[in-house]
Amino acid sequence: MYRTHTCGELRLQHEGREVTLSGWVQISRDLGGLTFIDLRDRYGITQLVFDMDAQPELCERARKLGREWVIRATGTVRERTNKNPNRPTGDVEVEVTQLDVLNPSKVPPFTIEENTDGGDDLRMKYRYLDLRR
Questions:
Q1: What are the residues whose beta carbons fall under 8 Å from the beta carbon of 131, sequence distance 6 or more?
Q2: Which residue ranges make up each domain of the chain?
């Protein structure tokens, strides 16, 4: 299955459910025993968590993911210990049990976010990327 939910719809009421999400890797953070990835689709952002103690091979694969890679992740929704009030999905995260790389990507010339670091000329040159904002 491609996905069961979008990245913008998971809330505390989904806690304990197994979900499949697909989207672009926005940010990856390696904190030693844990790796966090912010997964983005057109509907929002959801945090994925990979635990080195529980599944070391999966965590190692997650550490190799690049920005804007397209992935599919399956896991269990759980309540976050450090909630993010600036994000609608900031109360939950997905503890990943399966990871599939759908398409690797070169690093884009600017960040594909609402407040991008690309100037107008650069954004117009890569208009096909800018439209994903």
A1: none
A2: 12-106
Q: What is the CATH number of domain 12-106?
A: 2.40.50.140
Distance CA 111, CA 115 (A): 8
pTM of the predicted structure, to 2 decimals: 0.84
SS3 content of the chain, % helix, strand, coil (to 5): 15, 40, 45
Which pLDDT tens digit goes with each residue over 94-127? 999 999 999 998 877 667 766 666 677 877 787 7
Sign of CA dihedral 111, 107, 36, 72: positive
Residue among 115, 86, 99 nearest 25 (CA): 99
- How far is the C-alpha of 65 from the C-alpha of 11, rounded, in Å? 25
Contact 23, 69 (CB under 8 A): no
Query: Scanning the structure block, which residue is given the tokens 């997964």?
Result: 39
92: nearest Cα among 4, 3, 13: 13
